[in-house]
Amino acid sequence: MSLIGEKGVRRILSITAFSAISALLLIALFILTEGLPFIFRYGLHDFLLESDWDPQTGKFGIFPMVAASLWVTFGAMVVGAPLGVAGAIFLSEFVPKSVMRVVKPTIELLAAIPSVVYGFIGVMVLAPLIRTQLGGPGLSLLAASIILGIMILPTVISISIDSIQAVPQSYREGSLALGATTWQTIHMVTVKAAKSGIIASIILGMGRAIGETMAVIMVAGNSVRIPESPLDSVRSLTANIALEMSYATGLHRQALFATGVILFVGIIILNSIAIVALRKRVYKK
Amino acid sequence: MLRKTIGLISLVMIVLLIAGCGKTRTSITLAGSTAFQPFAEKLADQYMKTNRNASITVQGGGSAVGVQSAISGAAQIGMADLVELPPEAQQLTATIVARDGIALVLNPNNKVANLTLQQVRDVFNGKIKNWNEVGGANARITVVSREAGSGTRSSFEQIVKEISLAKDALIQDSNGTIRETVSNDPNAIGYLSHGLLNEKIRAIKVDDQECTTELIMAGTYKLVRPIYLLVKGTPEGEAKNFIDYILSSEGQNTLKSNGLIPAK
Q: Which of A86, A106, A262, B142 is most buried (CB neighbours < 10 A)?
């Protein structure tokens, strides 16, 4: 055992810990050095707010993609957040602990399904359903929202459950002792006390929805345009990068990296908000 | 215990290292056109059966990648299916190994059998929006195209000419997903490599010419593009042998029986 002593172990562990951080720094540095020069040259305003994307003729306006990413994320929230939060409330307040011990890991398994599989189900089942029932091409904003809404469920549910369970039992007991019904206790006391955690869960879900690529490419149809209805096909920022990266050279390639910069900044902002919200809860206790 | 483990790990690594360098096989890499990729794989398999020392890797990536990787040397042979090669490809030796028709495809439930080239142009420009304008049912046309930069798309647009793709066109990133989308949507129209047609979709006539090997060879079917193999400098060694094999009657017959059009 003398080969690696106490200090050696500590050193090895700290190297592994820093390698994760340095990987993040390297990625950030790489994206920024590849993408920022383009943004400066082309102009942030033109890049973000022009709606013509035609790499062949040198037009790089990503506004339709920004709009699509926001709409898709919003749609995923509309589908996923109510389902997730309601599910979390039900599981933590109405279901016996033993049942919960089985159900929660099962829901978390949803996160282990590869996104290609979600996309495949979207293409084979959801898109034809939307096309025949509601019209349009089927591959649409709506399809992407529903698929992403399901994909963020495990994130929303498991973090919401954790924060609801972190609410001290004495809060509930006090409320019930004052004569409040179970439902009144839940929505006026428990959920209010767990609010920051629930919001954080939704924001983390949003981060996942914005960053999701494969499933969105498969079900969103990828037209470059600002959606006018949920049945229109759209292209998200992530899909734009993934679709065109393999062919892109020169300025086009830089523009895709710049798209990555925008996405990266957006996700960092979202995650920071989530971290702040989560930290609030810890301090409250 | 720890020493033993470390010893074992280093032993395994050394064995792997030796195994990795052991054989002296000449290996070449092909990269580029996703339309030609499956054919190149088939040809590489056949070639490697007779030439046991050769090892050929086939990668996709698209025609632009084919040109780029041949220039940079990342691949010994680049594959490109473009009507006109980009200017930077002038430093490469280009060999036409086959030709490929681009088939316009519809869902089998769609009864439209023929479009003129002008109608094709209008459909993809978004001027014709409903199938009843071209003799079909009253239903909105779902245009399905490829992503910017795709060899099939640029060939298609160069042949049909004056296309600025309709904003609401769906974009799919491979021949396979185009086929899947069209086979799922009764109102869709897309285009893909003639060699990748199957029973789930139906190729239509363009200007009354059917997309068949015979008519493409006769030159009457208009949507045809050459498939180039690109080599930096003059081809030599294994790369030359493989290109020669593709151009041999055996290679050309393989291409023909799999749906491509022979070079000559």
A: B142
